[in-house]
Specification:
Elements (H helix, E strand, L loop, with lengths): L1 H22 L8 H4 L9 H15 L9 H23 L13 H12 L9 H24 L4 H19 L1
Helix pairs in contact: 1-3
Length: 173
C-alpha cells in the first residue's frame, strides 16, 4: 500500500512539474537541480510533491484550494499569448510587430514546395507528397526526442543558426 502511495506521489509530482515546465515555455524539460531542493543529489517524493503543490497554488488564483475551468483556461491563455508573441517575432519580416497575410510564410512554403518536387517538374506527385510527409514527420520526431531528453546536438545548433541567419537576412532586405 505504501509503495502505491509513493509511486502515485512521484507520478503526480512529475506530471505537475512537467506541466509547469511546459507552461514556462520548456516542453517536457525537467530540471533535476530545481527539483532537488535540498541539493543532496536525490529526488524524494516530498520534493516532487512540493513542486507540484507550488504549481497548483500558482494556478489557483483565488486560493480556494480547487482549480476551476476559468483558472485552467487562464493558464492556457497565458501560454497561448506567449506562443503568439514568439510566432510574431519569428515571422514578422518587416518588423512592425504584427503579421500581414503572407509575411514570412510565403518563402517557407516556396522552399517546402521545391524540396517536395524532387523531379523538378513543377508539381508534386502522390509519391513525392508521401516522401515529403515522411521527412517532415521524421524531423518532428527527432525534435521531440531532443526536447524530451533535454539535450541538443550539433544539428539543432546548425538548424537554429541557419534559421537566425535567414531571419536576419530578411530583416536587412
Amino acid at each position: 500500500m505504501k509503495t502505491k502511495i509513493l509511486v502515485g506521489a512521484i507520478v503526480t509530482g512529475l506530471v505537475m512539474t512537467a506541466a509547469s515546465a511546459q507552461a514556462e515555455g520548456h516542453p517536457q524539460r525537467l530540471d533535476f537541480d530545481a527539483l532537488d531542493t535540498n541539493g543532496d543529489g536525490i529526488l524524494t517524493a516530498e520534493e516532487l510533491q512540493a513542486r507540484g503543490a507550488e504549481r497548483f497554488i500558482s494556478i489557483d488564483t483565488n486560493g480556494d484550494g480547487v482549480l476551476s475551468v476559468e483558472e485552467l483556461a487562464e493558464t492556457g491563455r497565458a501560454r497561448a499569448a506567449e506562443r503568439a508573441a514568439r510566432i510574431i517575432a519569428r515571422f514578422d519580416t518587416n518588423g512592425d510587430g504584427v503579421l500581414e497575410q503572407g509575411e514570412g510564410r510565403g518563402e517557407n512554403r516556396a522552399r517546402m514546395f521545391e524540396r517536395a518536387d524532387t523531379d523538378g517538374d513543377g508539381g508534386i506527385s502522390e509519391e513525392e507528397f508521401s516522401a515529403a510527409r515522411e521527412a517532415i514527420d521524421t524531423r518532428r520526431d527527432e525534435r521531440r526526442d531532443d526536447r524530451q531528453d533535454g539535450r541538443r546536438d550539433t544539428r539543432d545548433d546548425r538548424r537554429d543558426d541557419r534559421r537566425d541567419d535567414r531571419r536576419d537576412e530578411r530583416r536587412d532586405n
